[in-house]
Amino acid sequence: MATLIAASVLAVSLSSIQNILIVALGLGLVIFFHELGHFAVAKWCDVNVERFSIGFGPILLSWKWGETEYALSLIPFGGYVKMLGQDDADPSQLTSEEVAEDPRSYIAKNVPQRMAIISAGVIMNIITGLLFFAFAFQQGVEVPPSELGTVFVGKPAWEAGLREGDRLTEINGRDVSTFGDIIRATALSSSEYLDVKGVHYDGGEFEARIFPTMNGTRREIGVEPIRGLALAPKEFVPNGDATLAGTAANKASPPFKPGDEIVSLDGEKLDGFAGLQNYLASHRGDTVEFNVKRTDENNKSSDVEITVGPQGFRTLGLWMDIGQIEAVQVGSPAEKAGLKTGDKIVRIDDLDVGKDINPLTLPDYFAERHGQEISVVVNREEKGSGAKSHDLVITPLDIPGWIERPSSANTPLSVQSIGIAFHMIPTVLKVQEGSPADGKVKAGDQIQQVELVLPKGTEKPDIMDKLDPVVIELNESNRNWMYAFWQLQVANSRDIRLKIVRDGSAPETVTFTPTRSEDWFLPTRGIMMSLLSVSQKADSFGEAIQMGVSHTKNSAFDIYLTLRNLITQNLSVKELHGPIGIAKVAYQVSQQGIAELSMFLGFLSINLAVLNFLPIPVLDGGHMIFLIYEGITRKKPSERVLIAATYIGMAFVLSLMVLVIFLDVFVHGF
């Protein structure tokens, strides 16, 4: 056993070392090809190249071949080619008449030759970036598609009417095919809104206008990538189980196994994750037969039939007060009926909300009455006259309730069949007789905090990945009752502890175990699914080159958009990464495969090309500006101008290095 453990540790260590070496080689190649461009064209123009270095600063290793010293230097932020008559550390050489007398010096060459030498590194990076991309597409790259997974309730995409399973095809006139395209197009757009085109899950085409919001460091629309039909693999789930403890899926017979691929439900073939969600939501109270494809260690596949019963909500017996409507979807039944943000629903079909009907059940109440006219009374605050009552009539769509869940903090509850979302106020209106809260909580109590606690004696962490209580605060800035209620459904083995305030007295805590409802069922069964990925693979070398060219153009364009958005502050500098962050990401990508690493190296190559050609002294773009000036005026810039510009450029570059290293260490962590 000890030998087996030692062998496993050694295998992991060797694998890690191999990945580190591959990353180091890859990053070194990106720099090497850039400097090779300068070096090759300089030699072609018969310039005396004194040193070819990978890295800056003190030389660690060097050897001389011919007239050139080849060096590996300490600081791995780039590299340089030192030519006779061109030295960023001594810009006065560019105006030295003595150096210019040597026909093999850089400054003795004409302007077009020097332009060719300066631009060669950038051109080489563009070529190698294209080839990195082409190689990756030849191998096949796994990427998340442009289908939407979770569309967060109340966020811009949700308000625009987008749903899980919708596929975006175009944003602001640019084609999108991957989820990464959606993230970049959103973060890098300069306009107030995004005009999107796509295809709904049911096949209908749509157009929508989305107004992104700034979320910390960049603009977002509130979406996640979609999941597939395969259960999460063993290494990505707690305790090696792809089902949540205590759920219907966890109790299924025979049991699910990590990596199982769901093929059909009750004999009905599935066409994607959205189809799985919709079927389970529409049959929430039924026992469902899952047909899964299972692959064993020998790569042999078999079909397995698994029976999964319904799963009731874990309930407390508390009816909370309903809050105001936080968001209304564009084009929804609610918008057509006249509901507005800020309205408070007080009565539905002559039922008082919070007294005759639990606000938590409203998603199901409306969904079960799809196609029927439902009378709704709302209170609306109006200027100068206070709250006024409005009678409205709404006809819900056939969309199951609770299919959109409050799975993140401060998320309101969605009633998707009519297109509204509302928060709950942590004031208890009613306690059901015989419920877990009966005798411990009273109507009028204010709940300040929710703790989800594991029973005493629990030794293994659950889905929350810790043994400590999960603490959820409830106040005006943390409207988290819905989030707490949903976490109660996820963490099936946890009890609940409430901190309550009664009649203005000091806070007190009560603890109880939720019970599972026998007539109100969840739309899920407790299965953890993997993210969906699709392969972008060229059928021929020519197609790989074509895809590489397209990706090169898009990458370069995105880099310029990034720079623009940094200047306009639509993108925070905290999104930047330095050498530590780049190495970390490269290592993570290398673990996914050589194709993914090649894509990353291609992106770095294009980054190096674009950034190095910015008009900043000491960078290639700065040198090009001086050459353009010389070509137009027929005279070199003065030594004073060159020295001042070089110091300014060097100060800028060094400041940027310090900034990104600071971000790597203290913001992103490494």
Characterization of this structure:
By secondary structure, the protein is of the alpha+beta class. It folds into 3 domains: 17-140 and 585-668, no CATH class; 227-312, Pdz3 Domain (Roll), CATH 2.30.42; 317-513, Roll (Pdz3 Domain). Helices cover 34% and strands 28% of the residues. Strands 6-5-7-8 form a 4-stranded antiparallel β-sheet. A 4-stranded antiparallel β-sheet has the order 14-13-15-16, covered by helices on one side. α3 crosses α10, α3 runs antiparallel to α13 and α11 (579-590) runs antiparallel to α12 (594-612). The chain is elongated and about 100 Å long. It starts with a helix and ends with a helix. It is found in: Membrane. This is Putative zinc metalloprotease.
State mean pLDDT (0 to 100 scale). 89
Tally of discrete structural domains: 3
Major sheet strand order: 6-5-7-8
Given the helix and strand composition, which structural class is it?
alpha+beta
Number of strands: 31
Q: Characterize the biggest β-sheet.
A: 4 strands, antiparallel
Molecular shape: elongated
Give the uncertain stretches in residue-range form: 1-15
- The radius of gyration is 31 Å
Helix content: 25-40%
Sheet-strand content, in percent, reads: 25-35%
Q: How far do the termini sit from each other? A: 34 Å
Count of discrete alpha- or pi-helical segments spanning 4 or more residues: 14
Organism: Rubinisphaera italica
Family: Belongs to the peptidase M50B family.
Subcellular location: Membrane
GO biological process, one term: proteolysis
